[in-house]
Design a protein that fits this description.
The chain is mainly β. Helix content is 0%, strand content 46%.
């Protein structure tokens, strides 16, 4: 797989997640797969809301503390 697209986000900015939480669904030419968190934290900023993505492209910024989410508002 070299590219895909964001089918939908399952969480929004500011939401808390734990390991195994499905952050978003990624659609490829063969399947739709869940992109799951490997650590816990908060979504500070979604960089790609929808559309095409390439392997290795950053999708979001995460932070460890809820108070740090506001720093990424703009």
């Amino acid at each position: 797989m070299e590219s895909g697209s964001i089918a939908k986000w399952n969480l929004k900015e500011g939401d808390r997640f734990e390991p195994g939480t499905s952050l978003c669904d990624v659609e490829t030419d063969k399947a739709t797969v869940s992109f799951d968190a490997t650590e816990e934290g908060y979504i500070a900023k979604i960089l790609i809301a929808s559309g095409d993505i390439k392997v290795g492209q950053p999708l979001l910024i995460t932070v460890e503390e809820a108070a740090d989410v506001a720093a990424f508002a703009n």
